[in-house]
Amino acid sequence: MRAVIFANGRLTRPIILQPDDLIIAADGGSHHCLGLGIRPQVVIGDLDSVRDDELETLSALGTEIITYPARKDFTDLELALLEAQKRGADRVLLLAALGARWDQSLANILLPATLPGLRISLVDGAQEIHFVHPGETLEITGQAGDIVSLIPLGGDAHGIITHGLEYPLFSETLRLGSTRGISNVLLGQAATTDKARVTLGAGLLLCAVIHQET
Prior knowledge:
Order of helices and strands: EEHEHEHEHEEEEEEEEE
Number of strands: 14
Helix content: 10-25%
Number of domains: 2
Shape: elongated
CATH class of the largest domain: Alpha Beta
CATH architecture of the largest domain: 3-Layer(aba) Sandwich
Strand order of the largest sheet: 4-3-2-1-5-6-7-14-9-12
């Protein structure tokens, strides 16, 4: 099951939802849902960013409201991810997870590293962030010329194999802090949908994809 989580950051482009998506709003992410006419199944957090009238509207629509105290150990977005996992989601699409606060944005980007049981993707307009864990293969769908950057996290990433990228890696290592994996390019014929693959042997890899604006 796929969960779609709306955070309280910048929403640059709405996503096409699937009928069986589990939709969760992390606190102020409920603003995006209401603005788009989307009913989330769950709103979760300390609710400091949601007005009482909005909560009444959501409750009337049948949304489950899960309230946490303001003094808590986790951000609203992490609580939303844990709730999605508890409800059986194995894939998560994070929307509006980036914004003006660098601390919040960085924390949101790194959150998927703590939940290897979930395949989590962050989407912000034409840009996507994915994580690759040891033994996994990430399939990237895009067009020729799309930028694909590979960034190791937590240490060096080993045994990286790529297919469909201009600068291939053959069971190689990317060092933590090195920029070698930045600005690779998806191959293929222009104006067609193509795919690339990234496989990781050991470590943790962040894959950032920048699609060409059409």
